[in-house]
Specification:
Oligomer: single chain
CATH class of the largest domain: Alpha Beta
Structural class: alpha/beta
Radius of gyration: 22 Å
Number of strands: 10
CATH architecture of the largest domain: 3-Layer(aba) Sandwich
Order of helices and strands: EHEHEHEEHHHEEHHHEEE
Helix content: 25-40%
């Protein structure tokens, strides 16, 4: 039911496996105060649709990004992409990270507001969100969402939020399943690459097959015939613009990702794909860093993000709609 008041919009960012928990969190927040309206990022990447524009529109309309971080991960995950894009929109765009008790917040977000998920701390956060809203979101200038304190409501809501963060579980052997990837992905094997921190190595192998780089994606580069063990260098050359700004910008963001810095992948200059036979530009794609899998370096005395050796990189190719 509409309250007639200005809605306080929260963008809930989450990992794909936590979609149900994110939806449950949205339900808790909207019950705490009717003025709160939540958008749960579905992370549905559909080839041929401008999903990046939709996410950007929702982020622009939001007063707060709430990042649901249920467990630590070595991957450069989708939620960090959304957080980086949100913070790049201006100083008034606030991010709050909820992370599991006994765990740790993502290192790139430790400079921002992080809330460890315990009943007292979540209760305190909900109280501040409702009574001192302007302190949680610098973009909000309409006072507190509530004018009266109801600690029983905050306590009940905090208890439900904590239940969304189960303790770590021992993973059973994976069950064989069929996965569908509805977007163009380029998966690169970075193992054994001596210089995998400053930029994407030219000699990184393209991982082809089910769950990796599909034949359909390779057809974008006209590389479905002949030699199959392709490298990143082969794809760059086949793009028709190997010296373009798109590659320099992509390498800059890759290096920032390895250092666990926030950035906006959406600003990468599009990669034009030029037909090798006609010389005509067929279509442009914006390569987005989706995931970097890493492993500890051999030197146990080293520390920091750059001590972790990149093992595999996944890029998502976002189609750019261009007017004729």
């Amino acid at each position: 039911m509409s309250t007639g008041r200005e809605p306080f919009r929260i963008f809930i960012s989450h990992k794909h496996d936590d979609h149900d928990a994110a939806a449950a969190l949205a339900a808790v927040l909207t019950e705490v105060d009717e003025q709160i309206k939540c958008f749960v990022s579905g992370a549905h990447l559909v080839a041929g649709t401008d999903w990046n524009a939709e996410i950007r529109t929702q982020l622009l309309d939001s007063h707060l990004l709430l990042l649901l971080f249920t467990e630590p991960s070595k991957s450069w995950d989708w939620c960090l992409y959304e957080a980086g894009l949100f913070t790049s929109l201006g100083d008034e765009h606030s991010v709050v990270c909820l992370y599991r008790a006994g765990g740790a917040a993502p290192r790139p977000l430790k400079a921002l507001q992080c809330v460890q998920v315990t009943v007292p701390l979540v209760q305190q956060f909900l109280r501040q969100l409702c009574l001192e809203t302007w302190r949680v979101s610098r973009k909000w200038r309409l006072g507190g969402l509530r004018h009266k304190t109801n600690e029983d409501d905050f306590l009940a809501a905090a208890t439900r939020v904590v239940a969304l963060f189960p303790p770590p579980r021992i993973e059973a052997a994976p069950t064989p399943h069929l996965a569908h990837y509805p977007c163009h992905r380029v998966v690169l094997d970075l193992r054994g690459q001596p210089c995998a921190h400053a930029g994407i190595p030219d000699s990184a192998w393209v991982v082809e097959g089910e769950g990796a780089t599909s034949t359909f994606t390779m057809s974008l580069f006209n590389l479905t015939r002949g030699l199959r063990h392709r490298t990143w260098h082969d794809l760059v050359q086949a793009s028709g613009d190997p010296g373009g700004l798109w590659l320099a910008h992509l390498n800059q963001r890759y290096a920032a990702a390895v250092r666990e810095e926030l950035f906006s992948p959406a600003l990468i200059t599009p990669m034009p794909l030029i037909d090798a036979y006609t010389g005509q530009r067929r279509r442009s794609y914006r390569p987005v860093i989706y995931e970097i899998q890493r492993a500890p370096a051999c030197d146990p005395s080293s520390a920091g993000p750059e001590s972790l050796q990149p093992m595999q990189l996944t890029l998502v190719l976002d189609p750019v709609y261009e007017t004729a």
